[in-house]
Automatic annotation (TrEMBL):
Protein name in the entry: EamA-like transporter family protein
Membrane-crossing residue ranges in chain numbering: 36-56, 68-87, 93-116, 128-145
Entry-linked InterPro entries: YdcZ (IPR006750)
Keywords assigned: Membrane, Transmembrane, Transmembrane helix
Organism: Salipaludibacillus neizhouensis
């Protein structure tokens, strides 16, 4: 089952990059906020159909959860809005590596302090180095993107 979850996550990464590229291009004509709205409206319709035919949970449980947990909805909207704005400016790979760095940073903080009932995992040198290497990767990717854009413009 864990191999299947790794595969699903891998496919999720592929779809995220494809969606980022498509939405970034689409936003040049429709606008960043408008593209984000269309994405969420379409996603809502798609998910409503899935819930209708395959849902096994309790949608009304939304009314019972602590209100702070509903903040995840707004965080998802902000995430997509930032992605759609960034891709046309810095490219898909630079956007995605920056997202990964952001995920690592907040993941380390959440693990270190045990926020949201997560495991407490102390910050160690391996984690520092992983962030450092990701930032170095971002630097080289961003510089390569900039050089490519300059060559195309020349």
């Amino acid at each position: 089952m864990s191999i299947l979850m790794i595969l699903f996550t891998f496919l999720g990464g592929i779809t995220l990059s494809a969606q980022s590229a498509i939405n970034g291009t689409f936003s040049r004509k429709a606008g960043t906020i408008e593209t984000t709205l269309l994405t969420f409206l379409s996603g809502t319709l798609f998910l409503a159909i899935l819930v209708l035919f395959f849902g096994q949970g309790n949608v009304l449980a939304i009314l019972e959860v602590p209100k702070w947990q509903l903040s995840a909805v707004f965080l998802g909207v902000l995430f997509l809005l930032f992605i759609i704005a960034a891709v046309p400016k810095i490219g898909v790979i630079a956007t995605n590596i920056t997202v990964i760095i952001g995920q690592l940073v907040i993941g380390i903080v959440i693990d270190h302090f045990g926020w949201f009932n997560s495991l407490v995992i102390n910050l160690d040198m391996k984690r520092y180095f992983s962030l450092l290497f990701m930032m170095i990767a971002l630097y080289f990717i961003y510089k390569g993107n900039k050089r490519s854009i300059e060559e195309i413009s020349a």
